[in-house]
Write a structure and sequence with these properties.
alpha+beta; about 150 residues
């Protein structure tokens, strides 16, 4: 059964897929290979597991193809928009977290991008209010990424 959950629509938003699976050896490898066979590039990845199940979070360059691939292979998944930010060094992390704290925006979770051009680091951040967070970060000079920035 496929579940789709979307947060408020944003133009050119970064879409994260959360894939739900039983916690068995090889599940992540299987999905990585299916994405590769569909010519999808994994931009960011995170996995959270328990004894019985796992949640694999992915950001890919072509969400439409990922959605089609996940449906074709009967994966249970949801999707929602996340905020992507670019930082130059680990020291910039405090700028991001401070700006969000001052704006009283709750961070649900975050994880790094696998690759970013020009040696920059990217973070995928799940937040309460993406547009308000984007404005708060812009005031601090933090570059927020759109889907265009991560598509190949």
């Amino acid at each position: 059964m496929v579940a789709e959950v979307r947060s408020s629509p944003r133009k050119d938003a970064i879409v994260q897929f959360s894939v739900f699976s039983d916690n068995k050896v090889g599940r992540l490898n299987e999905l990585v290979h299916r994405f590769a066979a569909a010519d999808l590039h994994i931009i960011a990845i995170s996995q959270l597991d328990s004894t019985e199940c796992t949640i694999m979070r992915f950001i890919v360059d072509y969400p439409e193809v990922a959605r089609e691939t996940l449906r074709k292979h009967n994966y249970a998944f949801s999707e929602h928009n996340v905020l992507g930010v670019e930082i130059a060094t680990e020291a910039d992390l405090k700028v991001v977290t401070s700006a969000l704290l001052e704006a009283e925006v709750n961070i649900h979770y975050l994880y790094p991008f696998v690759v970013r051009p020009n040696g920059m680091t990217g973070l995928a951040i799940s937040l309460d209010d993406l547009s308000f967070a984007e404005k708060a970060l812009a005031v601090r000079g933090v570059r927020c990424l759109s889907h265009r920035d991560i598509a190949r």
